[in-house]
Amino acid sequence: MSESLLWSQLREGRKAALEKLYRSHAPALLQYGGKFSTDQQLVEDCLQDLFIDLWQRRGQLSPVSSVQSYLLVAMRRRVIRQLSRQQKHETTEEPEEHQFDFEIAIDEQIAARELSHEQQRKLKQALEQLSARQKEAIYLKYQLGMDYEDICKAMDISYQSVRNLAHSALSRLKELLAGGWWLVIGLYC
Amino acid sequence: MNDKYLKYDAVKLAQEDAFIRWVQEEGGRRSQEWEAWLARHPEKQREVDEARLLVQAIAIKEEAVSQGRVDKLWDRIDAATKTPAQASPARPMAYRWLGYAAAAALALLAAFFFLRPDSAITVKTAYGQITEHRLPDGSTVRLNAGSTIRYHANEWNSARQLSLEGEAFFEVEKGKPFKVITPKGDVEVLGTSFNINTFEGHFDVQCYTGRVQVSANGSQEILTAGQLAQWEESAWQRATFDTDGGPGWQRGRFEYHSAPLREVFAEMERQFDIRIDAPDSILARTYTGAFERQALDSALYRVCWPMKLNAERRDNKVSIRPEENID
Question: Which of A52, A69, B293, B326 has its CA 20 to 30 A from that of B149?
Answer without folding.
Answer: B293
